[in-house]
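Appendix B, Record 12. Input sequence as logged:
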Amino acid sequence: MKSYRAELAVAARDWATDFDHTDEQYAAAAPEIWEELREECPVAHTERFGGAWLPVRHADVAAIAQDSEHFSSRSVIVSERPPIAQAPVGSAPPITSDPPFHQIARRLLLPAFSPKAVALLEDGTRALCNELLDEICSTLDAEGSGTFDAAAQYSQHIPVRVIAKMLGLPESDGDKFRVFIHRIIEKPGSFPDLAPEDTLYFYLHEKIAERRRSEPQDDLIGYLMGCEIGGEPLTDEHIGGTIALLIIAGIDTTWSAIGAGLWHLAQSPADRNKLVNQPEVWPFAVEEILRFYAPVTMARVVKAPVEIGGCPFDVDDWVLLSFPAANRDPEVFERADEVVIDREHNRHAAFGLGIHRCLGSNLARMELTVALEEWMKRFPEFELSDPAGVRWSTGQVRGPRELPIRVGVGRS
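Logged structural output:
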């Protein structure tokens, strides 16, 4: 059932001809908007951002994601106009790289995100989650009850610290990472007068320069500094772009998935009970949360004229690949509009489709699983303390930015 707030947001504008994914109303009611578009106009268009398209059917999203002949990945975040001459490398390889360079850049990172490498991070991630939960518990009353913002005090800290540790960057820079993500992902183009020293580019330039002056370190930045392509070491621009990718794509996406999982479970006592009483359901539950609350919408730039869903795409048009919308397509998923917590067959697109499928999927799954498991051990009963106070992020990554939770529910 649609909430009253969602109904108002859907009715607020003609999303088929004037969508804006950076609008607060879109963020609040995106699933309802996708549903309406799928029925009435499955390939939406806007003149904003210099011209952009939004397909919401799984078939169209998949066709574009798998087509590197007509669509370039040289920029994956929609802005007023796409960069002109960055292909095939792009500013954040490999996600902004086109073939054939894409495969070369991607291959460099695969060892760091393999199942074996991610398994080594699990114990530390569990310890981190319990540290955060200890801090939350210290704010509760003597009965173990209280309210707090689960996004600000839990979900948003986990991937920040995991990625910082992998890169060898200070965990204390987490607040800086959150600011960079807000500017780049949630409100792109909204900070034209930003001082150079306040940018992610400057931050990474300084960190790489520091590393060049110091002894090699056994972390991901040190690893990249030791990598070569064609017998030549990676440039600072390549290293900086890849670090930027890991900070932006490796943090916001995962904390959004964790927050959405908590948002769902806060309203679903039956699903909570199933996870407590049937722990074998956990792997299916994680995949279903990823399907239903997939956080990521990627962008492509049209590089050759093509028609999708009966719509003619012109060169340099933007295309938003809404993997979340594709995951709710009833033509592909049975009971697509429901969270089926024990869904066994689940070929979702939460991690993308085609050559750019997320190389960090093993890490994201681990963090999501650990974060929810440890939470449920502490708080098997909880609810939203203020449903109207939940705020969803704008832009191309969707997840709760404010998540007021009450724990100790049902205690005498």
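The mean pLDDT is 92.
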